[in-house]
Amino acid sequence: MTKRVTLFTEVADELRRRIQTGVYSEQMKLPSDYELADEFGVSRLTIRKAVDQLISEQRLVKHRGKGTYVMRAPKLYSGHYGLTSFTEVGEHLGKDVQTKLLSLKKIKTDQVALDFGEARELFVIQRLRQYNQTAMTIEELWIPVDYLPPTFSEEQATHSLFQLLEQSHVIGYSHQEIAAVNIEAPYHELLNVPLHQAGFKMMSETYSVDGALLLYDCSYYRGDEYRIKQTLQR
Amino acid sequence: MTKRVTLFTEVADELRRRIQTGVYSEQMKLPSDYELADEFGVSRLTIRKAVDQLISEQRLVKHRGKGTYVMRAPKLYSGHYGLTSFTEVGEHLGKDVQTKLLSLKKIKTDQVALDFGEARELFVIQRLRQYNQTAMTIEELWIPVDYLPPTFSEEQATHSLFQLLEQSHVIGYSHQEIAAVNIEAPYHELLNVPLHQAGFKMMSETYSVDGALLLYDCSYYRGDEYRIKQTLQR
DNA sequence: AAGTGGTCTAGACCACAAA
DNA sequence: TTGTGGTCTAGACCACTTT
């Protein structure tokens, strides 16, 4: 019992803490692998895994022969407090997020061009998501009826479908494609934006590890509220 | 001499070849770490690094206790043969790519809000990039005069500034922020698109490993020619 | 020459999944 | 119970960067 954490996670947590509290400040060079391994009393590989983790979190950078450095934060400030990236949209499940069901129907899988395998019937769920009373996105989701609990209801259709899915399936990966589009009728009214205003159209397919298509999602995001942020290395 | 490759890279190359030739087909389960280590005559850690590499390339997925699987390719087909993502824009340096210099001037660093450190003067380069005679993007770049060779000319301003930069600096990382915007005057004329058509606006800051700001980039991409594609795992 | 990250091994034990 | 991925060690040698 007690906590179920790995050694390298604990090391990573401590390094992250040092970065946040300024023990290791921006642009500063960290002690070497060897020194850290010594200090923490773990093997060098464990240090390297912890550092790799912080690199994937975009807090550190390293370069052969030079050392490991604390990454500088982006200086770009979009005036709005918009969401950071589509990957993080799911994290804003706070109390100010509302979901309104626009439509819920069943269709046969042979009516769509997507390969849902054995599944015969799909739910097609259209819903509007709001944040602080402001319409943010319109989502349209396709999901096999059998992948949701038999008790699935309209009420549940306003909550996280990912969580429902995960009760019976292990989610492996999602392919996403994002386009810049003009928001036209009838979407502009639902999103409460001027006709033709620019927005993001995101299409994604979610698969289980062994490649079964679990969910298809086609959504529109207000361009004035969302930004995509990412960091590229090397 | 001869090739300068690592063991795990060679293993990764062979695994990639097997995936491409169908020895390991889509959705198929690979042999276990142990079996592969045995077959290749290397340690298990080396196999794991090779597999990690292919996972980061989005060719494999794995799950504890279950196994490693070949990832399914995305089924989304944007009708156009547009560029895959901003990360790959630089790879299309084929013969059909043209760059036209729109303007080139020098300014003092104290005229901008960006922290270029010691640098006093910046080049501001505005250029238009075309692919197959079609205008694709408008770029505006800020870069310290000292970071480019003293021989820097207008002719060179139409080629890869990254390559020029790399002659004297090691590039560490770039922060990017992407917005969906309406293309307005005068950009719509340069890009040859209707007024108000949706497009991407991308702002990026490129840093060296030790956190010196090397380059700032603000670009507009035609929404009808570009898509952002990405794959999320777990 | 010294410092620091990159690769590699051989073997051990743990944790989750499926038979 | 068996298979398979996840973590961890201790030590060795290589390659790039800086002194």
TrEMBL record, chains A, B:
Keywords for this protein: DNA-binding, Transcription, Transcription regulation
Keyword tRNA-binding among record annotations: no
Species: Vagococcus lutrae LBD1
GO BP, sorted A to Z: negative regulation of DNA-templated transcription
Matches recorded under InterPro entries: Bact_HTH_transcr_reg (IPR050679), Chorismate_lyase_/UTRA_dom_sf (IPR028978), Tscrpt_reg_HTH_GntR (IPR000524), UTRA (IPR011663), WH-like_DNA-bd_sf (IPR036388), WH_DNA-bd_sf (IPR036390)
Transmembrane segments: none
Coiled-coil intervals: none
Pfam families: GntR, UTRA
Lineage: superkingdom: Bacteria
Listed name of the protein: HTH gntR-type domain-containing protein
Stretches assigned to the HTH gntR-type domain: 5-73
SMART domains found in the cross-reference section: HTH_GNTR, UTRA
GO molecular-function terms, A-Z: DNA binding; DNA-binding transcription factor activity
